[in-house]
């Protein structure tokens, strides 16, 4: 992502906010896990949370939260706070840009929808400033050092602890819980999600030992796989499926949780019982499957591939949050059951 440049009005306002922030804040100690409440604070504040881009000191329980990136707004809502601003999702969102599971949760609880902000190709710092946030959460995002510095002038900003877009889902939830002073509830959310996925595994013993690969294609000639640790893979292993062991043998593309294997090596997927992927529409699927090397992948040939065209579903199933998991499972589980049944019923020669 290119360096961001702040509009003149936002630059001036951010400078004033930075001066106020520096005048009013003092650093709190950081524990080995990256966050610790200062001694004697009955409500757990102030708290300092470290990230790869810098530390954020949150002086008191936040009330006006802005989220950037994927998944954070879901946890904020689950922990009892309605964000004042969330990043627009122009790919997987609804016609207004809201992710449907977030919109449904807020409307069901009678809460107002937050303002939508943009973060790509540039973070709208001026728009965020107008929301007067007291906390900006971006633990699963691609914000740059320049973004972080500008945002931190507006409000304490929590970025990612490792690489951009690489924060494990459970760590993301715990970071948000620390920032909101709700660590116990955040830990309970992590347990609940694991229990929810484990319940699917318990109810579907046929999933055990069933191997899968999660593919991405994009365009003809391209073939890659997602690795364990990527949420769209982890949600499936949480339900009892097993990543095809050959996937872990592939070199990981730097800065990602995926591997580009190339269509010419599609035969390494011969032992995958299932494959998962998505396409923009049936025409794209037809173009990809017209490639003989792709069409000969056993799971594609026998019909034990699980495919989606629904952008909202694809987005939700690539996240593990307290809102996406229940939203996805109602549709996902029956489709996986059908694909596993295809494998079970296939003639031995085709396996």
Automatic annotation (TrEMBL):
It comes from the Bacteria. InterPro entries: ABC_transptr_periplasmic_BD, Bact_iron-sidero_bind. Pfam families: Peripla_BP_2. Its main location: other. The keyword Transferase does not apply. PANTHER family: IRON III DICITRATE-BINDING PERIPLASMIC PROTEIN, PETROBACTIN-BINDING PROTEIN YCLQ. This is Iron complex transport system substrate-binding protein. It comes from Compostimonas suwonensis.
């Amino acid at each position: 992502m290119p360096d961001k440049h702040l509009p003149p009005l936002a630059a001036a306002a951010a400078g004033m906010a930075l001066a106020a922030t520096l005048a009013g804040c003092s650093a709190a100690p950081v524990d080995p896990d990256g966050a610790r409440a200062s001694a004697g604070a009955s409500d757990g504040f102030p708290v300092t949370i470290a990230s790869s881009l810098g530390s954020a000191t949150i002086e008191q329980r936040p009330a006006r939260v802005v989220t950037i990136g994927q998944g954070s707004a879901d946890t904020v809502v689950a922990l009892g706070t309605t964000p004042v601003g969330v990043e627009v999702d122009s790919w997987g969102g609804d016609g207004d840009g809201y992710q449907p599971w977030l919109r449904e949760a807020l409307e069901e609880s009678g809460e107002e929808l937050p303002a939508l902000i943009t973060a790509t190709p540039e973070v709208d710092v001026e728009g965020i400033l107008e929301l007067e946030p007291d906390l900006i959460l971006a633990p699963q995002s691609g914000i740059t050092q320049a973004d972080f510095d500008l945002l931190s002038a507006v409000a304490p900003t929590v970025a990612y602890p490792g690489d951009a877009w690489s924060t494990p889902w459970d760590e993301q939830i715990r970071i948000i819980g620390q920032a909101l002073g709700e660590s116990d509830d955040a830990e309970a959310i992590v347990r609940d999600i694991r229990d929810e996925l484990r319940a699917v595994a318990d109810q579907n013993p046929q999933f055990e030992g069933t191997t899968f690969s999660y593919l991405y294609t994009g365009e003809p000639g391209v073939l890659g796989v997602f690795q364990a640790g990527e949420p769209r893979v982890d949600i499936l292993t949480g339900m009892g499926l097993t990543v095809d062991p050959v996937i872990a043998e592939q070199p990981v593309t730097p800065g990602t949780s995926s591997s580009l294997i190339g269509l010419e090596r599609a035969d390494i997927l011969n032992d995958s019982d299932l494959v998962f992927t998505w396409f923009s529409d049936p025409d794209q699927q037809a173009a990809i499957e017209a490639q003989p090397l792709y069409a000969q992948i056993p799971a594609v040939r026998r019909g034990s591939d699980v495919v989606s065209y629904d952008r909202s579903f694809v987005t939700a199933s690539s996240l593990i949050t307290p809102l996406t998991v229940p939203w996805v499972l109602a549709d996902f589980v029956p489709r996986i059951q059908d694909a596993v049944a295809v494998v079970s019923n296939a003639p031995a020669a085709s396996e």
